[in-house]
Design brief:
Blueprint: H1 5-14, H2 18-31, H3 37-56, H4 59-64, E1 80-82, H5 83-94, H6 101-108, H7 114-118, H8 144-148, H9 175-187, E2 191-193, H10 194-222
Length: 233
């Protein structure tokens, strides 16, 4: 289970406080009732957004946060996602969102190793969903971790072009959202970095489509209809 570092740190800090632990437990309970991977991912995102709304709506924080479209510091860092979130991102691609597949595979080679990821040149670390203007192509369906990434002060503190995330960063505390995120990762069948998980999901879908195509072609040649999944042994 590759729980995001900040969410994990929050959980370790607050796990003994009943009101916070209940957030994690409630998230797990609700997700267990949802069968669709896309619905599960969107449910998590909605919960995270609700908790964040209370934090990010503060007038002073609004004034001090530099985070906005075009500010892409965090979009060049390693982001963890659940399998559900990877499925949701793949769903966006299937519906027309274009990405650089070569760049995705290059990043996926780093696996879940942060040192290997930050050894990749800065420009080649940019998220595959970042457009030429520095905006997110899948903002509505962006991962939960991306929803909690926010800082106070100068945006330069997020720059990892010369520093692989080792400098002091004044992060906005999103404790309730973090506890919800831990719940989603605890229940996930698999989790890992965005490039690795998305690459796995896309390859699995491609293999499934190829198998279906082959069955269809064989069916036309033999004059037999492809065997439905219900009748497969």
């Amino acid at each position: 289970m590759n729980v995001p570092a900040i969410a994990k740190s929050t959980f370790e800090l607050l796990r003994n406080q009943p009101e916070f632990l209940k957030i994690t437990e409630t998230m797990i309970t609700h997700l267990n009732k949802i069968k669709s991977s896309l619905e599960r991912a969107r449910f998590v995102h909605n919960v995270v957004d609700e908790y964040n709304q209370k934090v990010f709506s503060h007038p002073i924080l609004k004034e001090l946060m530099p985070c906005k479209a075009g500010c892409t510091g965090c979009c060049h860092t390693q982001v963890s996602v659940t399998e559900d979130e990877a499925e949701l991102l793949a769903h966006n691609i299937a519906n027309g969102v274009e990405i650089n597949y070569k760049l995705l595979e290059h990043q996926a080679l780093a696996g879940n190793d942060s040192a290997a990821f930050f050894a990749i040149p800065y420009k080649e670390r940019k998220c595959v969903f970042l457009d030429e203007k520095g905006a997110c192509k899948v903002y509505k369906d962006r991962p939960s971790v991306c929803r909690t990434n926010a800082v106070v002060g100068d945006a330069a503190q997020c720059d990892t072009s010369t520093n692989a995330g080792g400098g002091a960063i004044r992060l906005v505390k999103t404790q309730e959202a973090d506890m919800a995120i831990v719940g989603s990762f605890a229940l996930a069948k698999e989790s890992g970095t965005l490039p690795l998980m998305l690459s796995k999901v896309l390859k699995a879908k491609n293999a499934k489509e190829n198998t279906s195509t082959v069955k269809s072609i064989l069916g036309r040649i033999t004059g037999k209809k492809p065997i439905s999944k219900d009748h497969e042994l």
